[in-house]
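Supplementary Methods, section 5.1.

A reviewer requested that the exact input to the structure prediction be made available. We therefore reproduce it here, unchanged from the version used in the analyses.
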Amino acid sequence: EYHSEKEFLDYFVNQESIFEPGTDYEYSNTNYALLGFILQKIYGMEFADILKMKIADPLQLKNTYFSNKVDSSKNEALSYNIQNRFIRNAQVNYANHRSGGGITSTPTEVNKFLTALFNGQIISNESLKLMLPQERGAYGMGILMLNSATDIYEHSGRVENYISDYWYFPNEKLGVVVLTNAINIEIGKVVMEMVGFAYGNKPVIPDFNVIDGMNSADFLKLKGTYSKNDGETITISSNGKNLVFQSSEIGQMFVPFINKGNNVFEYEDVRLTFYPNENKVFFEQNGLQEYYKKM
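The structure derived from this sequence is encoded token-by-token as follows.
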């Protein structure tokens, strides 16, 4: 549903801060939405119009704009979760995200935006320096510097199963952008293969029907979607190396588990024990114990 600026502000205004200002950082959609509200007051117009005036029109981005809802008649991608089949997500009204989400674009146009940003076509070099982190592994104003041998700037985002990631190499003036509407592996792995391709390496497509320490026939007995009585589901897949766990309760985030042998897999304090002959998996975490049945 649509929510007004007042409803948005009322939702979080009385919540306590996670830490003292200036002592730490954490990405926050709320802060981006607040910036959008501030822009609307400065310019006296809607965020969508500001985006068009200041970014899309000057850079001639024909497919970059803000809207509250996805319109598939305009060839805008719908969002899906990957279980034992593709399951379409419910529509979200991006008035709930404001300038923290809801921008439609294409990989090519996001890359044009990055090139313009890092080359002084949108903001001044002085302003750009304020945005950029000074140390590897640090976060600046909306931009992360990867902890790598060369300078690489990165930012990723997610709303539903729309996941985006960009890497920008300032020395090479190379931008790599990935946008997806359905994925069950870490998007950074896709970006790394694309970076390798840009440097002349042939992409390596993993075999998603195997995991380390288990052959294809045995893994396929575990792969699939499981459910319990209350309707909650978990999906088991592969990223080509690890068993990947997704839970519908946490928005289908995918977590790689380590194969411990004998159909037991672990990730931090979570343990999965599979019983392939019974089409069951036993979930354990911090005293919580539950069985899921394969669908």
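The first helix runs from residue 5 to 12. These observations are discussed further in the main text.
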